[in-house]
Specification:
The complex is a heterotrimer of chains A (about 230), B (about 450) and C (about 260). Chain A is built from eleven helices and no strands. By secondary structure, chain A is mainly alpha-helical. Chain A has a domain of about 160 residues. Chain A is globular, with a radius of gyration of 18 Å. With about 450 residues, chain B is α+β, with helices and mostly antiparallel strands. The N terminus of chain B is likely disordered. Chain C contains five helices and 14 strands. By secondary structure, chain C is α+β, with helices and mostly antiparallel strands. In chain C, helix 3 crosses helix 4. Classes of the chains: A mainly alpha (about 230), B alpha+beta (about 450), C alpha+beta (about 260). At the B-C interface, helix 4 and strand 8 of B face strand 1, strand 3, strand 4 and strand 13 of C.
Chain lengths: ~230, ~450, ~260
């Protein structure tokens, strides 16, 4: 199965990223919902993480947009649609069964909109996503290929955690996970890391103090992690 | 073939909503463009199966094998010696005016002389039980994936139906297709070429790739080097492709042989094919054999190439090209259905009875001016099939697309795509025109 | 019978790097009844591995693929041939009787033919000469008004064109008259580039006629490729990727 094109390897990577972005967005919104019960409003902080302007009437307006508004590029609906877009062309790699979980997630998200208790009706999405990852494990036989989707997943997680100022211990764990994934990538393939940028991330995530000072730079370096390496003379 | 051994099943199998829900979940869709915007639609499934008796199927099967074998002989003949023209069976201009005839394919002999590996033959059953061939589709007939997945899901939703009825399992289609592809393989992996996810049949392309273990490819990852077709892999290597089941039309296949402006083709694919280094399913140039004008001659082909009497009948057809037929068509035009040979997908079909006197007169003139452009057929009194509409059983027109696979032997898939019209007055059943589909049971 | 030395070169230059460049050349003259190729060498630069096939119309096709970045593609042939225009090829593909993409007439050309057809009676060679005479009076040989994509109908409406257009119009008229005709691309003494002329079916064999010069084809014509119209005969066809905005083609040919 290593007969996979560059296009499909990129699709796998982005399938991993968007599925994870969807998942973390949902989780974050769920936390905000929880705060709203006590009358606290945390969404301006959330917007701040991503440098987004506050154009929302209230928390409900914000949550509605970040859950369902497909034209909002930071919404759960948008990430899920992109995940599906990447998944739909990977049927023979990830299988119809794996793909069906994304379709189910879409259907569940849409139908939750009309339910009285949105949080409750979003709950099955967790089961669906865990099943999705289980199915990915089951159906992608080639380790090299499966690793690409996990690299996407972990990079996304690390990126969002750093943006959302997660504690160092949590970020460090995910970083170690990423390093394990990266070491499995054979040389001279597109998802082999660029040493220069990986070194920067390694330095910044070395200590808690460096992380607090340099997380922006670490985020930038992550974006360039798969840039082709400059030829050394 | 009589009606009583073809008892119609009128009960729905399983709950229609449940099955449609499952079909949704598994993404059984077809794409459609409306006002320039791409939409994916779910292909509506009707839970009342069409049932074909064992006896009926045996005769259809024999007839289809015979027909497809003759069509394959015809294609070889046309692109080589053209004996059927020299012997006066088919007038020369029917071949060369056909848009499906590709002079660039002259002299090419595909592996094992098979041109039509996958043939989709459309049939209808008349009220008297007789089956008629409506048209042959020998280019890229689509639709096999729908009954395939519908059966899979119906067995989940309504297991009793399968245990209580003696139905031939149709889930062998992927295996039949795989064998057919392997038989046409010239060395290398199998690939299915799709124009991309915004194609109407993208679901089918990806589903068949998954189930035949082929790679699903687009043109930008393929290239021809030293007249061998390769896929460029993500690590910069290349993998040889031995057979390409392409789901794009002939004209777009190779911009260096056909339309230079094609952006979805593979340059020099035809050179690789001509050199025998890659099999193409179905062979380019097949359009000459499924032209509506050539349809008239298929029974004659069967006699000519196989020395046999045709088992399955054509719908009674007239060619205005012939003087006697022209006379008949002019007299009976209000009773006939007229088809424009250049159109497909349910377009260009006119029922004389629906036209006003003035329109009929106008149409007569058009036919006289361009007799080769039209065929006329008697309107067959279709056997209506029951379908479920909002809980009620109603009767609708339906056809059957049978799939015939030509590999080492010619085989008919014991199922098929039954499409029905949702409009009670319509005879047109194409999915692009809003129809639905049913499972097709062939009994053991 | 005449012995000819021929040479032909094309330089394609792009204004930016291109890659994944596939090409099909119809440049090696075929052996036919009327011409024997005694020697022929083909050089292509940048160096690339190629394969030869013979297409449906009997042309030699050289196919190649250049993966990496390059800014030019040059190819040239040199060789000698023995030409004998008293000999004729006598195998007919029926498709030559039917109009093809570049020769399909429009109303203007159909009207022109229908006014012409009753004025003259004769066999195929006489008709071909007659049509060629009429065209040479009516159509002006003029460079720059038509392109390689111009059809017979378009050139006829302009009443002007180059050898390719003369050939297409003549083929269209002959086919309307029920005479099979084919397009020839080749080299001739009169031209520094490639030339085009027509062959028509006499009922027994193919015979050449040069409508742009309104003269019969003799031993000074070397056939490079043939087909229903220009599209089947293009000396080079290619597909490439890159950010180039234009390509420059220089062609030089010599016949001695």
């Amino acid at each position: 199965m290593t007969n996979i094109s560059k296009e499909h390897s990129d699709r796998l990577y982005w399938l991993g990223r968007y599925t994870e972005r969807f998942f973390i967005t949902l989780r974050s919104l769920d936390k905000l919902y929880d705060r709203m019960i006590d009358g606290r409003h945390g969404y301006t902080e959330y917007l701040g993480y991503f440098g987004l302007p506050d154009k929302y009437k209230d928390s409900h307006d914000f949550i509605h947009s970040f859950l369902y508004d497909g034209s909002n590029q930071n919404s759960a609906a948008y990430s899920l649609e992109r995940a599906y877009d990447n998944g739909i062309v990977l049927r023979e790699e990830i299988s119809t069964k794996t793909l069906s979980f994304l379709q189910m997630a879409k259907d569940t998200l849409i139908s939750s909109q009309s339910k009285a208790n949105v949080r409750l009706s979003l709950l099955p999405l967790k089961d669906i996503l865990y099943s999705f990852w289980g199915s990915v494990n089951e159906h992608i036989y080639d380790d090299e290929i499966r690793n690409i989707i996990y690299i996407g997943k972990t990079i996304e997680r690390l990126d969002l955690y750093m943006r959302m100022k997660y504690p160092f211990a949590t970020v460090e764990k995910e970083f170690i996970r990423l390093c394990k994934n990266l070491h499995r990538v054979p040389k001279d393939t597109p998802y082999r890391y660029n040493t220069k940028y990986l070194c920067t991330v390694v330095e910044i995530l070395g200590t808690e103090d460096d992380y607090k000072l340099g997380s922006d730079k670490a985020i930038q370096s992550l974006e360039h992690l798969f840039d082709p390496m400059e030829a050394t003379v | 073939m009589t009606q009583q051994n073809n008892k119609q099943f009128t009960k729905p199998v399983g709950n229609a909503d449940e099955i449609n829900e499952l079909l949704r979940r598994y993404g059984v869709k077809f794409g459609i463009y409306k006002n320039g915007v791409f939409n994916e639609q779910f292909f509506p499934f009707d839970p009342i199966p069409r049932v074909i008796s064992s006896e009926d199927f045996k005769s259809i099967e024999k007839g289809l094998v015979q027909r497809v074998n003759a069509l394959n002989e015809f294609l070889f003949d046309i692109y080589h010696d053209k004996n059927i023209v020299k012997d006066g069976i088919i007038p020369e201009n029917f071949i060369y005016i056909s848009k499906g005839y590709l002079a660039q394919c002259e002299g090419i002999t595909p592996r094992n002389k098979i041109y039509s590996h996958i043939s989709g033959i459309d049939l209808v059953q008349a009220k008297d039980g007789e089956w008629y061939i409506l048209e042959d589709n020998l280019r890229i007939p689509s639709g096999a994936s729908y009954p395939l997945i519908a059966r899979e899901l119906t067995r989940i939703a309504a297991p009793h139906a399968s245990s209580e009825n003696e139905i031939i399992d149709n889930r062998n289609y992927a295996r039949l297709l795989k064998e057919t592809m392997e038989y046409a393989n010239c060395g290398g992996i199998s690939a299915i070429l799709t124009p991309g996810r915004y194609n109407a049949a993208y679901f089918e392309h990806s589903y068949l790739a998954e189930h035949t273990g082929s790679v699903l490819v687009q043109n930008d990852e393929l290239f021809v080097e030293d007249n061998i077709l390769y896929q460029r892999t993500y690590s910069g290597g290349k993998t040889r492709i031995g057979v390409l089941y392409r789901r794009i039309a002939d004209e777009y296949l190779d911009p260096l042989t056909f339309l230079p402006e094609s952006l979805i083709g593979i340059p020099n694919l035809m050179e690789a094919y001509r050199s025998g280094n890659v099999g193409i399913i179905n062979a380019p140039g097949n359009g000459v054999a499924d032209d509506k004008g050539i349809y008239y001659f298929v029974p004659k082909m069967i006699k000519y190439y196989l020395g046999e009497e045709p088992i399955l009948k054509n719908a009674p057809t007239y060619l205005p090209f012939y003087e006697d037929d022209m006379k008949y068509v002019m007299e009976k035009i209000d009773k006939l259905v007229i088809k424009d040979v250049a159109e497909a997908g349910g377009y260009g079909v006119v029922f004389g009875r629906n036209l006003t006197k003035e329109k009929l007169e106008e149409f007569r003139k058009t036919i006289i001016a361009e007799p080769r452009r039209f065929i006329a057929q008697e309107v067959i009194d279709f056997l209506d099939l029951p379908i479920l509409e909002e809980g009620e059983t109603v009767m609708r027109k339906a056809d059957l697309r049978a799939f015939v696979l030509s590999g080492e032997t010619t085989k008919v898939w014991a199922s098929g795509l039954t499409r029905f019209s949702r409009n009670p007055d319509s005879f047109v059943v194409n999915s692009s025109q809003g129809g639905g589909f049913k499972d097709t049971w062939v009994l053991k | 019978m005449k012995k000819l030395n021929f040479s032909f070169s094309t330089k394609l230059t792009f204004d930016d790097y291109v890659h994944d460049h596939s090409f099909a050349l119809r440049i090696i003259p075929p052996d036919t009844e009327a011409q024997k190729i005694l020697s022929c060498s083909l050089n292509i630069s940048p160096t690339v591995s190629t394969k030869q096939t013979v297409d449906a119309f009997g042309n030699n096709v050289t196919a190649g693929y250049i993966h990496g970045d390059h800014r030019f593609l040059d190819f040239d042939i040199k060789g000698t041939a023995e030409v004998d225009s008293t000999k004729h090829s006598s195998s007919l593909m029926p498709c030559y009787l039917y109009q093809s993409e570049f020769t399909a007439p429009d109303d203007g050309l159909i009207k022109f033919y229908s006014e012409l057809k009753d004025k003259y009676n004769g066999n195929a060679p006489e008709k071909a000469v007659y049509f060629s005479d009429i065209l040479s009076d009516l159509i002006e040989y003029k460079k720059g008004v038509t392109t390689t994509a111009t059809t017979a109908a378009e050139a006829f409406a302009l009443r002007a064109g180059v050898c390719q257009d003369f050939s297409h119009i003549l083929i269209s008229l002959l086919r309307m008259d029920g005479i099979p005709a084919r397009y020839i691309a080749g080299l001739a003494f009169c031209d520094g580039e490639t030339h085009s002329w027509v062959e028509y079916w006499t009922g027994d064999h193919w015979e050449g006629i040069d409508p742009a010069n309104n003269c019969p084809v003799n031993d000074d014509y070397l056939v490079i490729s043939m087909g229903r119209d220009f599209r089947d005969c293009a000396i080079d066809r290619g597909v490439m990727f890159g950010r180039y905005t234009q390509q420059l083609q220089l062609v030089r040919s010599l016949l001695t």
